[in-house]
User: Fold this.
Amino acid sequence: MTPNPLAPAWLTVPADANALADHVWPPSAARAPSGELTVAGVSATRLAEQYGTPLYVVDELAVRARAREAQDAFTAELSARGGRAKVYYAGKAFLSAEVARWVTEEGLHVDVCTGGELAVALAAGVAPGSIGFHGNNKSLAEIDRAVGVGVGTIVIDSELEIERVADAARRHGRVQAVRVRVNSGVEAHTHEYLATALHDQKFGIPLADVPATVARIRSHDSLEFVGLHSHIGSQIFDTDAFAVAARRLLEVHAELHAIAPVPELNLGGGYGIAYTSNESALSLGDIAAQLARIVADECERLDIPLPLLAVEPGRAIIGAAGITLYEVGTIKDVTVHMDAGTAVRRYVSVDGGMSDNVRTALYAADYTARIANRASSADPALARVAGKHCESGDIVVRAEYLPGDVAPGDLLAVAATGAYCWSLASNYNHVGRPSVVAVRDGAARVIVHGETEADLLARDAGLRRNGER
Assistant:
């Protein structure tokens, strides 16, 4: 079949538009004999009938397996070099009480960056000492609560925070462990909005200013400086930028260690996952091996002890474990005029959109989609999966080959939506955020309740309780 000229160069016409790329979909995703998509033994049709659409679906065992894989890989690689590792789950990717329990039961710590995320982690029973608290603008109340409950570490993101955290620690009679977030100036090869270590951006303290910052921290009896922290971006597919960041940080680490011990080094997260069949991500084992080697070699060169290596994967733990189910509403073929003639793009509109997945509009992200309620033998046709919102940029999947007989009422599944979809969801156009359902061993259960119109109206102070003005 000849490719549609409107298709991006990376998107090829599939031999089978029903096939599920193993490295994109949850490991348990499969086609039942009926052709239905199943995840963890639960059919898409059953999920849609029971919980409605749009619907986030998360494979619990896939999340647990990835958390365990990360913990085991970094522990093994650091242990082999005489060191230790500490793996945090980056809660910003997706955090709920159940997810917090899953990852901590598999040995991970939890990284939070707001008072709300801290509240979820604490309510889920996460030990305060295993929580790390980030954020470039922590409020006084957030700092006070974090110190008061005994969070393990607070990441200092600006000079102002030194006094704020020190004062809170004195009030609570604690010595608070802190890290310093460093703006390393390393450019990760990712979308500019995802690069978090460029010089001209809001995060961290410039590398040249770190020694003076640490000296100020060490002057406070209520603070304990435990190490440097770096986060260079998200959705990164190699370790080259991590290597540069590690070397820059360890040069300063060695300078600080000459004055007093520096027990830890945190290189953050940002490991990419495959959203489409043409993408290939490093395994967690490969990432752990490469980062451990980079840090160990540099420490040997600098003649300093190997610090505890901390990392913060989020998307890499939960991203591929999640899918989103939608119902198709309308189909519209649009003729596009090109220099060489015309081509047709099929718009497949679904009952969700940028309110449940804003990444496509925000980052021009690409996704993979399949019909979920049946298999089809129809020839593939280039499609754009659009949402229901009043924005031309309300696109869920920019380009995908779907069976040509996709029709209203079909269920559509979009892969790899476990990270940064629910957590970035909104009520745009007064649409309620969808439920999140966990699937495991043929059973499903709600782990986050979706919002109803009644929920939205209940927050409107201009309405009386009976809904009348």
Observations:
- The chain has a mean pLDDT of 94.
- The chain has two domains: 30-60+320-458, 81-313.
- The chain has twelve helices and 21 strands.
- Residues 30-60+320-458 form a domain with the Lyase, Ornithine Decarboxylase; Chain A, domain 1 fold (CATH 2.40.37.10).
